Amino acid sequence: MPEYILGIDCGNTAIKAAIFDLHGHEIGMASTRVETLFSKPGYSESNLNELWQSCTQVIRDALFKANLKGSDIKGIGCSGHGNGLYLFDENNASTIAIKSLDSRADDLSGDIKHWVNYDQIHALNHQGVWPSQTATLLKWVKINVPDVYYRSTTLLFCKDYINFKLSDTLATDFGDLSASGLFDFKSHNVSQQLLKFLDISEAADMIPPVFRSEQIIGTVQSDAAGETGLLEGTPVVAGMFDVVASAVGTGVFENGKASMIAGTWSINQVISDDLPTPDIFMSSVFPGDRYLAIESSATSASNLEWFVSEFFQAEKYAAPVLDRKVFDYCNELVQQVQLNENLPIYHPYLYGSKDNAHLGANFFGVSGWHTRADLLYAVYEGIVFGHQEHVDKLARFGITFDHVVLGGGGSRSNVWCQLFADILNITVNVTPCAETGARGVAMAAATGVGLFASFDDAVSSMRGDYQSFYPNKDVQLVLRNRQKKYQKIALFLSEW
Fold it and tell me: Which fold has domain 302-430+466-494?
């Protein structure tokens, strides 16, 4: 009998459920958008009841599309966006649910960076503080809504909430915890010293038991089985921070290999045996007692989603009728644009830049003869320039690579993949699997339930083949000149 694994991927904007066989083939997938609540400027929150209902729906839909029963699923893994802040009271009811696009703590983050003990905080958690980081948001809640802070008894990450609803188990994994700003890399756990520096010592008691991603934390309970169509007793593993899951799901598992994700966030990451320098954006614990050196910011494909939502409404509404995706139409438009140095420049700072949460996106050099297609090209290109900013920073600290596996929504566009290869001047590999986060955590679940002897075996068996894109030398001079212009404007903006 064939054996199947369910992977669930819960991001800031969508939740997906995908079923895989042991060769990594996607058998059935379903997804739906996740609503974001913008109650105030800079706030980005989630309704967890609606999130769970969306999760149950995509699981049922994935089983239906795969023509499978719950009893066919041998294990379940969940990945989710990292950071943000999900707190619960003693009855396991949500007290606050903040997503990782939130910027309410921007001023507080700036203040903490001037504390006398900030260098010690940075040395311990290898990232310091930033606005939507879990540690910073905990401090913000303690200051601004203390009743919520002191009423909360448990801290979970996004995927941990889904795991709790499935298994009735409160748990997290080392990947999410290590990326949260609460993790002391010297002690390899949360330490009182780090929390004391941040004046959130009470938070130590909020952290649930911590597991490796592939460890089984519980099984599907009867209520969840009834809501999802899964079989009661099906094992659930601890799961993964979504950037780790996406790296693993694209087959990036060996030291020195690079994963890039063009999704809501611009993720640029490299695996290492050695703990990376604290001067990069963050580090995360990676399977096999290794680390992921991560440079990232909310400057990637979310910019395209905004642009399409605002300027391609007619095409969006027509897409279902024409049985095509609006992004297919966008790719065709971009492909028709004649590259030249006078096209507009776009900076993808809708949610702030990598260094400044208050910075906004912008088009530069727009003239009367420019078309909607020219602006669309500039968005595609500007997002890749944003990724290049992070790659350059990794290189400054000796973290380099000569090819990369690209994942996320951007990887489903051949024209965009070629643009990544041309601008980064490296080979870009792409897996045909669209749901790499779900596949990565499915690999963890397959390992945890014993379908593979090791995590490495699971990745080798389930990663599949790649399509490769190579740099086109004929366009690189123009792209380099445009990138220099992008960088000059970015520098000016950062000092504005």
Answer: Nucleotidyltransferase; domain 5 (3.30.420)
